[in-house]
Amino acid sequence: MHNFDIEKPSSVSEAVAALAAEGAQALAGGQTLIPTMKQRLAAPEKLVLLSGIEELKGISASGGKLTIGAATTHAEVAADGSYPALSALAADIGDPAVRNRGTIGGSLANNDPSADYPAAVLASNAVVNTNKRAIAADDFFVGMFETALDEGEIITSVEFPLPEAASYQKIDQPASRFALVGVFVAKGANGWRVAVTGASNEGVFRWSAAEEALNGGGSLEGMAPDADGMIDDIHGSAAYRAHLVGVLTRRAVAAA
Amino acid sequence: MISVTMTVNGKPVSGAVEGRTLLVDFLRETAGLTGTHVGCDTSQCGACTIHVNGRAVKSCTMLAAEADGAEIATIEGMANPDGSLGVIQAAFKEHHGLQCGFCTPGMVMSAASLLAENRNPSEAEIREYLEGNICRCTGYHNIVKAIQAAAAQLG
Ligand SMILES: Cc1cc2nc3c(=O)[nH]c(=O)nc-3n(C[C@H](O)[C@H](O)[C@H](O)COP(=O)(O)OP(=O)(O)OC[C@H]3O[C@@H](n4cnc5c(N)ncnc54)[C@H](O)[C@@H]3O)c2cc1C
Ligand code: FES
Ligand code: FES
């Protein structure tokens, strides 16, 4: 790892100011960024630690909404339980040590195509709040490892409208425990939304054909998305992943 | 250089570190506590597992500078004050929960954190909790047995 300077701001405004410097990057739980720096795939000149910022931490429920601070760990979300499908998702990320450090904000900012949280945020129609705006889930995820965040912009919290019913079903990639395919379904004010992670080269996406079938009272039997554009690697072919999307969506709806 | 101070197994330890100094390197090289092992250095194997403020963490995936002011517990702190093996360590010995011993410090620290959260875990809960700890020798069965025995003893 190349060396870097460290800043430890205690407020969001101090963090934003520190991130304005050339080559500065935020560090939350470090469970993605530290391994990436060790591989020299990232070499920031300065790391701005978010872990000392109290206003980025904690979970609160009010008015049918659950708000989770960006620096809240996976373990804290797993233990919360006010959105059971979300807590179950958090409880299955990586392993206990990863969950004790990794944060929801870090996972969303990274937008790994096989990460779990993006599916929950997209299916729940959540809002990603940053230091300067509120971004709807439909606008937040732009592509593989790409989000709508600007340079130096930090996620402050995520707001989940609590759904009537929801479930996340995941087949683990056995070595990394990331999603080989994961499907999050949630029934909210405007009906069902179905979000798929681990499958597409473009990252998390909404499976609109399944949403239409569910909202129109149709059946999901035998449905699967097109395998074109699906991830095809040693862990699973594109056709296998497309098949799993259908299977996991049916399981998720049954379990919701 | 950045100066850091933390409490390690109840004793204060201070030192000057670089931004990139990993917590595991600070513990091994500055604090001289070489019981914590580096198996993979890629966040996969769990040999470097320690407790930070009471929670299991991979010390190869945390910066020393992030642990400034923290309470740290390592495998060296698991022994009794007279140096004899603590309950979990003794159970690993008794039930052949180790062969080469490389993964053992991390296994014991994960086991301690499991038993702090759940005094009476099922076999399935033990196996799931150890997802982030890899052992290339034992095949895990005796590790699970050792943790079951320690759980029974700790009540
Ligand atoms: C062994 C292992 C297994 C894992 N398994 C899974 C799994 O099963 N499923 C899964 O989804 N993930 C998994 N992960 C990844 C894990 O969930 C990470 O915690 C997460 O991807 C990143 O969160 P972090 O807080 O650690 O972020 P960091 O590593 O600190 O940062 C990641 C990126 O996000 C940026 N960032 C962080 N916080 C913010 C913020 N508030 N605003 C803007 N940018 C920010 C950083 O600058 C960096 O670019 C695994 C990781 C490991 C090491
Ligand atoms: S050395 Fe830290 S996880 Fe392997
Ligand atoms: S005893 Fe050798 S790696 Fe576990």
Question: Care to describe what's here?
Answer:
- The complex is a heterodimer of chains A (256) and B (155).
- Chain A has 256 residues and is of the alpha+beta class.
- Helices cover 31% and strands 26% of the residues of chain A.
- Chain A contains 10 helices and 14 strands.
- In chain A, a hairpin with a 6-residue loop joins β11 (165-172) and β12.
- Chain A is globular.
- Chain B is an alpha+beta fold and 155 residues long.
- Chain B has a 5-stranded mixed sheet with strand order 2-1-5-3-4, with helices on both faces.
- The A-B interface holds A 1-6, 8, 27, 30-31, 34-35, 37-38, 47, 49, 51, 75, 94-98, 100-101, 177 and B 2, 18-20, 22, 41-43, 46, 49, 52, 55-58, 61-63, 65-66, 110, 113-114, 129, 131-133.
- The complex binds flavin-adenine dinucleotide (FAD) and FE2/S2 (inorganic) cluster (2 copies).
Entry summary:
The complex is a heterodimer of chains A (256) and B (155). Chain A is of the alpha+beta class and 256 residues long. Chain A has helices at residues 12-19, 33-38, 74-80, 84-91, 96-101, 104-110, 117-123, 137-140, 208-215, 238-255; strands spanning 5-7, 24-27, 46-49, 59-62, 65-69, 127-130, 134-136, 141-143, 146-147, 155-161, 165-172, 179-188, 191-197, 205-206.
Q: Within the largest sheet of chain A, what's the order of strands?
A: 4-5-10-6-7
Q: Mean pLDDT of chain B, as a whole number?
A: 97
* Whole-angstrom Rg of chain A: 18 Å
Strand order of the largest sheet of chain B: 2-1-5-3-4
Mean pLDDT of chain A: 97
Per CATH, which architecture of the largest domain in chain A?
A: 2-Layer Sandwich
Tell me the overall shape of chain A: globular
* CATH secondary-structure class of the largest domain in chain A: Alpha Beta
Give the helix/strand class of chain B. Answer: alpha+beta
Distance between the termini of chain A: 44 Å
Biggest sheet of chain B, open or closed, and with what strands and sense? 5 strands, mixed
Span of the ends, CA to CA of chain B: 46 Å
Low-pLDDT residue intervals, each spanning 5 or more residues of chain B = none
